[in-house]
């Protein structure tokens, strides 16, 4: 299979031009066609010679994201299910906020982390996406927004999969997103979320970026976290927290802790107080997420008043906290739900 053109950095393209007896400045022109003009084929790149365009056609391909289905929520959230070249499917979400458009991208086909409240892990991990396949999700979303003169203003890597188990391709994607000659998205407008892959957390602390880090924590102690997140048996809660302290010390940047509230499981007042005790004094923020009901799972939603009580306890302990505003609730916008339905219908 020919390599994806989006998998090549500007430096890679410059080297390719040199190897193919083309002026290296052509790489910059090609880069502009890909990320500024956002064309979908080499033939449209009119300031490249016909011979060069043919070389590109012969040696590269664009990422094929075939739209299987699209749902649009009453709140403006748009969820895509895209088919890949190998018949796998992934999800990408556009979320509209009063401050701009945010894109939630996927880094793996499926997931092996096994969180018991999440649909992404149903069916396990099929494969990693390449950096180019992750990039293509943002490019396609931006192409759709181009029609109304809007732009992607922020990115969250919180779709299906564990980005820190696909670390190199995720970092390639991030570097391409912030490239000044590419989409040029501000680093502080990008957030990568991990379930706590400790070695990669230490690597990320050394990357010298301004990209935000979020940790899916979902429990205030080792025992409960292992029950909810089997990955905790590989990377225990204490080790995750130690990696968080290291990240803050190295970067001076705040960490966001994602905490999914599950009715009767991790949402009681004692859980809130225990979490406050663990996080006291840390440069952090807690994002409380009322869990979406997933038909394949048994968990129920935390009652509204209990959500507010959990929030109050953290605030009383001087922990920065918000309750995530729900988006796309009417279109199965939780990670993996749309793909799970598609897999079920395909097998059926």
UniProtKB/TrEMBL annotation:
Q: Which cofactor does it need?
A: [4Fe-4S] cluster
Q: What Gene3D superfamilies does the database record attribute to this sequence?
A: 1.10.150.530, Aldolase class I
Q: Please write the reaction equations for the catalytic activity of this protein.
A: adenosine(37) in tRNA + 2 reduced [2Fe-2S]-[ferredoxin] + 2 S-adenosyl-L-methionine = 2-methyladenosine(37) in tRNA + 5'-deoxyadenosine + L-methionine + 2 oxidized [2Fe-2S]-[ferredoxin] + S-adenosyl-L-homocysteine; adenosine(2503) in 23S rRNA + 2 reduced [2Fe-2S]-[ferredoxin] + 2 S-adenosyl-L-methionine = 2-methyladenosine(2503) in 23S rRNA + 5'-deoxyadenosine + L-methionine + 2 oxidized [2Fe-2S]-[ferredoxin] + S-adenosyl-L-homocysteine
- Which domain of life does this protein belong to? Bacteria
Where is [4Fe-4S] cluster bound in this sequence? 111, 115, 118
Keywords assigned by UniProt, alphabetized? 4Fe-4S, Cytoplasm, Disulfide bond, Iron, Iron-sulfur, Metal-binding, Methyltransferase, rRNA processing, S-adenosyl-L-methionine, Transferase, tRNA processing
Residue positions of the active site: 91, 335
Name one process (GO BP) from the record.
rRNA base methylation
Q: Where in the cell is it found?
A: Cytoplasm
Family to which the UniProt record says this protein belongs? Belongs to the radical SAM superfamily. RlmN family.
Query: What miscellaneous comment appears in this entry?
Result: Reaction proceeds by a ping-pong mechanism involving intermediate methylation of a conserved cysteine residue.
What function is annotated for this protein? Answer: Specifically methylates position 2 of adenine 2503 in 23S rRNA and position 2 of adenine 37 in tRNAs.
> What protein am I looking at?
Probable dual-specificity RNA methyltransferase RlmN
> What organism does the record attribute this protein to?
Paenibacillus baekrokdamisoli
Encoded by which gene? rlmN_1
């Amino acid at each position: 299979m020919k390599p994806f053109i989006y998998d090549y950095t500007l430096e890679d393209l410059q080297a390719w031009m040199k190897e193919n007896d083309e002026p290296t400045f052509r790489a910059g022109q090609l880069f502009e066609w890909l990320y500024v003009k956002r064309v979908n084929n080499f033939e449209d790149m009119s300031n490249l010679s016909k011979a060069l365009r043919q070389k590109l056609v012969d040696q590269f391909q664009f990422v094929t994201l075939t739209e299987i289905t699209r749902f649009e929520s009453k709140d403006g959230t748009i969820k895509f299910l895209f088919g890949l070249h190998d018949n796998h499917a992934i999800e990408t979400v556009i979320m509209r906020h009063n401050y701009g458009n945010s894109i939630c991208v996927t880094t793996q086909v499926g997931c092996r982390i096994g969180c018991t409240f999440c649909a992404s892990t149903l069916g396990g991990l099929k494969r990693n996406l390449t950096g180019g396949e992750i990039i293509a999700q943002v490019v396609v979303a931006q192409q759709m927004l181009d029609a109304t003169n809007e732009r992607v203003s922020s990115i969250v890597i919180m779709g299906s999969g564990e980005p820190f188990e696909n670390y190199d391709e995720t970092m390639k994607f991030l570097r391409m997103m912030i490239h000044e000659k590419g989409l040029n998205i501000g680093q502080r407008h990008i957030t990568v979320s991990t379930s706590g892959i400790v070695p990669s957390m230490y690597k990320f602390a050394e990357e010298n970026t301004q990209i935000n880090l979020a940790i899916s924590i979902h429990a205030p102690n080792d025992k409960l976290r292992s029950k909810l997140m089997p990955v905790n048996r590989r990377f225990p809660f204490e080790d995750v927290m130690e990696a968080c302290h290291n990240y803050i010390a190295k970067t001076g940047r705040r960490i966001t802790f994602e905490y999914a509230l599950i009715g009767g499981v991790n949402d009681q007042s004692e859980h809130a107080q225990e979490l406050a005790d663990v996080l006291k004094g840390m440069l952090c923020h807690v994002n409380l997420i009322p869990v979406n009901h997933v038909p394949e799972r048994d968990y129920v939603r935390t009652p509204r008043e209990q959500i507010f009580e959990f929030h109050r306890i953290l605030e009383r302990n001087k922990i920065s906290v918000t309750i995530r505003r729900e988006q796309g609730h009417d279109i199965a916008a939780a990670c993996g739900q749309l793909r799970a339905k598609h897999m079920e219908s395909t097998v059926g």
